[in-house]
Amino acid sequence: MKPFLTFCAICCFAGIFRLPIEYYTFLRILVSIGALLVLYSTLSFRQHYFSIIFLVILILFNPVFPIYLYRKSIWIPIDTITGILFLLINFIEKTEPKKKEEITEETSEHSIPIHQRTVSRDRIINPKKPKEE
Predict the structure, then answer these.
(1) 4: helix, coil or strand?
(2) By CB neighbour count within 10 A (0-12 exposed, 13-18 middle, 19+ buried), where does 104 fall?
(3) 92 pLDDT band (50/70/90 cuts)?
(4) What pLDDT does 108 receive?
(5) 35, 58 Cβ separation under 8 angstroms
(6) Distance between CA 24 and CA 104 in Å, rounded?
(7) Helix 72-91 × helix 2-14 angle, to 10°
(8) 15/72 Cα distance (integer angstroms)
(9) Do 46 and 30 touch, CB atoms closer than 8 A?
(10) Which of 28, 42, 72, 131 could make an S-S bridge to 63, C-beta 3.0–4.6 Å?
(11) By the 8 A CB rule, do 117 and 37 touch?
(12) How confident is the model over 46-56, as pLDDT tens digits?
């Protein structure tokens, strides 16, 4: 996913220049797909601030119902900020959400007092094997 998001960022930076309208249609499709991927990823990692930002990007760049701002001077900062956000999302370290089992393990381990824990060396092991009948 990182190479694709880097490609989206490069295409956003290239959108600053005066290019044919077909490129901007391609850019809308590409950025929409990238925003959908990031939106899914941020929702699964429960990073809601990035989810809101990329939802706005998805709405702004959607190819189905395009939003036309008609002035290049308005799109230049939008393309630049979008490219920076795609690069930023690439380099932020994502932490995996803890599963419920891991959380209960950690809390149960710390809730037992030290004197009640059983350490393996404290167990009495019978050296004689019981007779099988």
Answers:
(1) helix
(2) exposed
(3) confident
(4) 54
(5) yes
(6) 50
(7) 160
(8) 10
(9) no
(10) 28
(11) no
(12) 888 889 999 99
